[in-house]
Amino acid sequence: MKRLVLFVAVAIASLTAFGQKDYADFDNLADVLIKTKIAHAKSKDANSPLELSLYFQNTGTKNVIVRYEIFIKDSNGEMRHSGKKEKKLNAGQKQVGKISGLSYELIGTNIDDYASGEKQWYFTLLEIKDAETGEVIATSEKTREE
């Protein structure tokens, strides 16, 4: 029984570590760590669509709501947006990527287009609200209006 418990614990730890690989720090607002990752939808297929995955972790002691909107565009003017979204995070909770509904398909299949700026994604809204009062606690300065 002890071996089974140990095996399950190691398996969960491995999956958790693997699922957070390659996320880059974006911001830390009101005890909410925000990270992002651009990767192919199918990791072994360079022709699969690119996806932007978000990572939100509430390191604080109060429940919060992350409110955001993402815009995606390329040099030809093609543009899409996520619409305004809200994700509730309880104290200590983390929500990551596709499994949490925090993944968005990007335009194209070449990651270098985003590194060069030919294609872009950005937040037009990124704020943290108190889950009980609805009061805005923090707003990121890393957003831009379009």
Explain what the structure shows:
The chain is an alpha+beta fold and 146 residues long. It has a single domain, classed as Sandwich (Immunoglobulin-like). The protein is 16% helix and 45% strand. It has helices at residues 2-19, 111-116; strands at residues 24-29, 32-40, 50-58, 64-74, 79-81, 85-89, 94-96, 103-105, 119-130, 136-139. The strands form 2 sheets. Strands 1, 2, 3, 7 and 8 form a 5-stranded antiparallel sheet that branches. Strands 4, 5, 6, 9 and 10 form a 5-stranded antiparallel sheet that branches. A hairpin with a 2-residue loop joins strand 1 (24-29) and strand 2. It is globular and about 45 Å long. The termini are far apart. Mean pLDDT is 87; it is low at 4-19.
